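REQUEST
  id: r-88c1
  op: predict_structure
  target: Peptidase M55 D-aminopeptidase
  payload:
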Amino acid sequence: MKVYISADMEGVTGLVDAEDVQPPGRDYERGRVMMTEDVNAAVRGAYAAGAAAVLVNDAHGPMRNLLPDLLDPRAVLIKGRPKPLGMIEGLTSEYDAALCVGFHSRAGVLGVLSHSFMGHEIEDIWLDDRVTGEIGMLHAAAGALGVPVAALTGDDAACAEMTGWDPAVATVPVKYAKDRFAAQLVPVAEARAAIEQTVRSSLRSLRAAGSERESAPAADQEVGPGAAGLPATRRLTVRWQSASVASHLIAVPGVERTDDRTVTVSGDMVTLYRLFNLFLRVATAVTSNPPYC
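RESPONSE
  id: r-88c1
  status: 200
  body:
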């Protein structure tokens, strides 16, 4: 079993503020340790479930947050940016499961450090007219590759968001949002134990379900996880805070502007995810606003 981990930071145990998750924040270096240890808990759970390989993608901000010397040595790490697929860099159909560690809720939701990819630069994202954020985008892209998301860790708002996309995904709330920069924290040891146990049990269940499908008669087998019912062509719509971003993006073939601040484009989900990462690079070049303002 090959397991993929996308590691974000806002949903990590104990972290509640931009000072915790963005350099040069006064608590950022401590936040890096906390992030690495949450990932380690997931790695331990994956190997306890029988994983043969675990790939970890540092998916937060500068994408150089995880500390390699503290990371479980059984895991392989992708670090740094730019990456063509950003938060899902390295994920392919060869993986049996994906894990989301340290995730947060989308823009506009009252969750800890809630936003969608770029702080306040992105007002809203829709996937086939359904409002989404980082969780929905990752779930859809993984599904298009035929890779089921097995578990997610984050605050209670992030967990609820994932459940809305897929009730089969196991979730681990490591904190409970009181406001956007405040939370009631689960004790660190308890949170890490819950991450490890939940990852282990969710991957074991997924593996058992896969074995049952393989042993079933061909006529009775279902389409693989994440593939059933997914349309081949999806539509992505993004509403920016800046009209300047939208005006630049219409130079990309296939991108249309529906109003001064909103662009839309259609295609297969993996191509859309790659194209969206190009959108982010254009927006970063056009704007200079810091996140969480």
